[in-house]
Amino acid sequence: MTNINFLKPDNKNLPLFLTLGSLFFVFGIFDFYSSNFLNTNITSFLPRIINFFTPLIFAVIGLHFIRIEFSGIKILDNLNKNINTSNFNAILSVMIILLIIFAFPPLLNWLIFDANIVGDTKEACSGSGACWVYIKVWFNRFMYGMYPNAEQWRINVTFVAVLAFMAAGFVFPTKLRNYLSFYYTILLPIISFILIYYLISGGSFGLEWVETGAWGGLSLTFIVSFFSLIFCFPLGMMLALGRRSDLPVVKYSSLSFIEFWRGVPLITVLFMSAVMFPMFLPDGTYVDKLIRVVVAITLFEAAYTAEVIRGGLQALPRGQYDAAKSLGMGYWRMHIFVILPQALKLVIPGIANTFLALIKDTPLIFVVGLLEVVGMLNLAKTNPKWLGFSMEGYVFAGILFWIICFSMSKYSQNLELKYKTDR
Amino acid sequence: MSDSIIQIQKVNKWFGDFQVLKEIDLEVKAKEKIVVCGPSGSGKSTLIRCINRLEEHQKGIITVDGTEISEDTKNIEQVRAEVGMVFQQFNLFPHLSILDNCTLAPIWVKKMSKKDAEILATEHLKQVQIIDQAQKFPGQLSGGQQQRAAIARALCMEPKIMLFDEPTSALDPEMIKEVLDVMVNLAKQGMTMIVVTHEMGFAKEVADQMIFMDEGMIVEKASTKDFFDNPKSERTKLFLSQIL
């Protein structure tokens, strides 16, 4: 045990350095923990400025001792390679670890350990943690809005049915594969519209009529997003092709359409659809508020989708056009079979981006008085009996939107992998 | 009408102010093989791209198999279906397998049934000796294999004329031969071919006529033997001395 160089830990004295390093590291972390959560600062005898940094210093020294190359211990090597390559990296790693220790326990306490879930009045909440009772009591409203409780099964049935029709595409017999895009762009919207019209809206077949103003909550989020997504994609594609067209009329009308809708804020568009649009209609005609909103969002997002798709079209080398033309393909055949499949594959991330933004824009429909999940939240938090729980509400909405958007983003990643044919 | 399948009369073309083709006159008879050579920027690629109107010419007349090439779209697609083209960069469709690359146009342009198209494609893929790669995607093939697949794709349209735009320029020396072999075979089968290339060995072997272009003009047009043995213009001599 001679010649131990503490500045250069080596393999020969591995056990010594390991013990020493872990001790320092654990001490540093413990120091931080105790001074933050146990109210006892074990290094308080030191000058204040040093005292403040002791956790960091000790932990970094600890990491320095265990930074031994080719130690032969797999975990240690991995650790060194990933978070402990140099003193600077060690400092960053320790700071992040300390930050996590600092921030997570209180967050978890609020979210879970101190939270209240039992009961169904405001008084059931102790106040130190989140009051999930609030969410529980209002859950039905957050999901279905003002839709009458007794009729809510209709929404559930419709959603299950639409999901089933969407999933049907995956089990299509191979013979009908060619009609898949037709099914998704034309048939599915029609089927869904009919289902929603007759089931959710009602009014015939002995079902009670429920006006769209009463629809709301998460189900409305889904309805609005579903139709906007399904329509804005083909429309955007047409606009993208139109903007690149050689025909001046097509080109400039696409261009001005795109630039108009990209230039105005969505909230203005929604407001206009609610207030100004009816003024242009002849007396007596009436277009449902929800339809107006869906059309407005569709047109708005189509402009964005168009530009994303145009990006993909421009990324294709000219040779692809040449090759398709040289085989005698006309404009539509060239685009359908050669250009669009490649361009759309390239822009899957961009399209996913636009679609996620669309879903997260839906809360804006509150300006026309439609209350989807965030709208319902805003309504619920002003209820005199339940004042002061906006935090829980927003966290809940955040989690909901995150789940929806994350699943979509996962799905888009799957698509990317599925259509990956390396050049 | 003469027996020529392609007639090019006094064709001029400009890119902006720059004139790329100047008063080009050329006649190609059926089953004739023509090799076009010349320094880069001399307009040789542009010339053959004008034949199936991948580029538009502004002045002059181009007639392919009795159809004049003009702005009338219907004509152009008809002509393009009869004129196969092979590109320097292969330009296979990367999202389709080699087999699908070959069957796409026969199915959707010639309205062939899928089964017939696949039989036809298999035949041509055998001819270019990459039938074992039929299910792969272009990205998984070597350059030489890709170019042979591209030739097969063009042949699947059963064209009367084949245009080759520097088909070996983007290839490794080892792969050039496999592509040239396919082209020589094709020539022996009696295909009408216009080939832009710098492969003079290939030219000597198959060409009936040689064309040397420079600065947008046809500088020399001669039978292959005359072209190599006693070129008339100084410019051609200089070019040949550099390339041979």
What does this structure look like?
- The complex is a heterodimer of chains A (423) and B (244).
- Chain A has 423 residues and is mainly α.
- Helix content of chain A is 69%, strand content 0%.
- Chain A has 17 helices and one strand.
- Chain A has helices at residues 14-38, 48-65, 74-83, 87-113, 132-144, 152-168, 180-201, 217-243, 248-263, 266-275, 277-280, 289-315, 318-326, 331-346, 348-361, 373-381, 390-418; one strand spanning 371-372.
- By secondary structure, chain B is of the alpha/beta class.
- Helix content of chain B is 39%, strand content 26%.
- Chain B contains nine helices and ten strands.
- Chain B has helices at 44-51, 73-82, 98-108, 114-127, 143-155, 173-188, 200-206, 224-229, 234-243; strands spanning 4-15, 18-29, 33-37, 59-64, 67-68, 83-86, 161-165, 192-196, 209-214, 217-223.
- In chain B, a hairpin with a 2-residue loop joins strand 9 (209-214) and strand 10.
- In chain B, helix 3 (98-108) packs across helix 4, helix 3 packs parallel to helix 5 (143-155) and helix 5 runs parallel beside helix 6 (173-188).
- Chain B is globular.
Describe the secondary-structure layout.
The complex is a heterodimer of chains A (423) and B (244).
Chain A: H1 14-38, H2 48-65, H3 74-83, H4 87-113, H5 132-144, H6 152-168, H7 180-201, H8 217-243, H9 248-263, H10 266-275, H11 277-280, H12 289-315, H13 318-326, H14 331-346, H15 348-361, E1 371-372, H16 373-381, H17 390-418
Helix pairs in contact in A: 1-2, 2-4, 5-8, 5-16, 6-7, 8-9, 8-12, 8-16, 9-12, 10-12, 12-14, 12-15, 13-14, 15-17, 16-17
Chain B: E1 4-15, E2 18-29, E3 33-37, H1 44-51, E4 59-64, E5 67-68, H2 73-82, E6 83-86, H3 98-108, H4 114-127, H5 143-155, E7 161-165, H6 173-188, E8 192-196, H7 200-206, E9 209-214, E10 217-223, H8 224-229, H9 234-243
Parallel strand pairs in B: 3-8, 3-9, 6-7, 7-8
Antiparallel strand pairs in B: 1-2, 1-4, 4-5, 9-10
Helix pairs in contact in B: 3-4, 3-5, 4-5, 5-6
